[in-house]
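Try this one yourself first.
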């Protein structure tokens, strides 16, 4: 008989259940700000390990990625043990550094500290020991090497919440110490991580980490916020936004400034006043049904669009800001259904039916691996300004 051995079985009781229920019921889930539990946890953990600050993140992997981002390791070397979880080395590569593996001691499974010095070069910037299986590394030796060669210490303490090194908790030693609260870890959560900071610049570092864990936002007042901490983006996708906002130009300008040179913006807006829409309007003797703004006062709450675009207006706007248009693409010209007599305006039943038909039409291309043909058709439609929405790819 086969018996399954559970990889983990976290212990949860009524207290945990009630705490989760309180958070769920608060309906403030984003960024952990809602019931203040994340902040409370950070404070308690900081007191527990006795560090200068603690910043909670969503995993041990994120903790390593962010901790390494503090010390600009681009083209630098980071020394880590040859035996660890892949996230330790991935985080180095993600930050543009080179992982340099050092053998482990087979009795402790931790990095063999006697072998570290041989691997230190002019390019070494960080020592990244892992407290494997919760057994602490020889931090005295690691500390003395860090002082001798002026290296930062970032500890991977994914397995070591609660571990002591010489009567001090892991979390209180290195410049930054990264914990994981993955379900198989000794402090288990559905997922979670934390960076404990002891660096003398802990205030600045904490500020930067707080921004990085929240899309680079450093300062938020009501609906306004800034994004200072995050680097430049390769791509920005603005989908179903510009028609709803007061100032679409400022959003496009901000996107331009946030993109790397050569970065791509993809914008999708409803393609209003397009030739088929106008034809259908005449054929069905309708008012301009897509203009919802003016009917707002009558059907309160029904405000949908503030701005109306078509292929040429959105392209011109992007060009004025400095973008170079590379591809124009339409989506299915739904007005064809109107011209075929299927009046879906204000008729959800017909609306649903025609959407299913459109999906069916498109699925046929995907199923037969003719996605490129579909794109070509939609790009041709875009050339004559037809399509329910206008999609523009543009380059900085
Ligand atoms: C040594 C080590 N570092 C980092 C991690 C990554 O932690 P997480 O799974 O929370 O991203 C793990 C997870 O197993 C780990 O074992």
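Now uncover the answer:
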């Amino acid at each position: 008989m086969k018996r399954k051995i559970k990889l983990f079985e976290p212990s949860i009781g009524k207290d945990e259940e009630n705490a989760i229920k309180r958070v769920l019921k608060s309906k403030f889930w984003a960024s952990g700000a809602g019931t203040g539990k994340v902040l409370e946890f950070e404070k308690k953990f900081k007191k527990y390990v006795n560090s200068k600050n603690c910043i909670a993140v969503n995993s041990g992997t994120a903790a390593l990625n962010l901790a390494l981002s503090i010390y600009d390791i681009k083209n630098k070397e980071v020394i880590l043990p040859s035996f660890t979880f892949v996230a330790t080395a991935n985080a180095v590569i993600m930050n543009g550094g080179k992982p340099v593996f050092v053998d482990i001691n087979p009795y402790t499974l931790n990095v063999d500290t006697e072998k570290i010095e041989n691997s230190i070069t002019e390019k070494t910037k960080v020592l990244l020991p892992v407290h494997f299986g919760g057994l602490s590394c020889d931090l005295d030796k690691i500390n003395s090497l860090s002082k001798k060669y002026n290296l930062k210490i970032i500890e991977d303490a994914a397995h070591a919440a609660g571990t002591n090194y010489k009567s001090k908790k892991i979390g209180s030693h290195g410049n930054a110490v990264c914990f994981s609260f993955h379900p198989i870890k000794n402090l288990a959560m559905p997922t979670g991580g934390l960076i404990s900071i002891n660096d003398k610049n802990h205030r600045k570092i904490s500020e930067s980490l707080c921004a990085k864990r929240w899309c680079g936002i450093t300062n938020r007042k009501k609906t306004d916020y800034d994004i200072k901490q995050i680097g430049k983006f390769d791509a920005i996708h603005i989908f179903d936004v510009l028609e709803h906002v007061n100032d679409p130009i400022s959003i496009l300008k901000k996107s331009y400034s946030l993109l790397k040179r050569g970065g791509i913006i993809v914008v999708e807006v409803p393609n209003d006043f397009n030739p088929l829409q106008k034809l259908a309007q005449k054929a069905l003797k309708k008012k301009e049904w897509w203009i919802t703004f003016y009917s707002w006062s009558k059907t309160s709450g029904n405000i949908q669009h503030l701005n109306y675009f078509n292929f040429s207006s959105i392209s011109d706007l992007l060009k004025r800001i400095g973008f170079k248009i590379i591809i124009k693409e339409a989506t299915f010209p739904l007005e064809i259904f109107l011209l075929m007599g299927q009046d879906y305006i204000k008729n959800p039943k017909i609306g649903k039916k025609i959407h299913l038909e459109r999906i069916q039409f498109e699925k046929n291309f995907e199923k037969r691996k003719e996605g490129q043909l579909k794109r070509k058709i939609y790009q041709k439609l875009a050339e004559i300004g037809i399509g329910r929405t206008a999609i523009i790819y543009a380059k900085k």
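Discussion: The pocket of pyridoxal-5'-phosphate is lined by residues 59-61, 84-85, 87-88, 130, 156, 158-159, 180, 182, 193 (CB under 6 Å). The chain has 13 helices and 15 strands.
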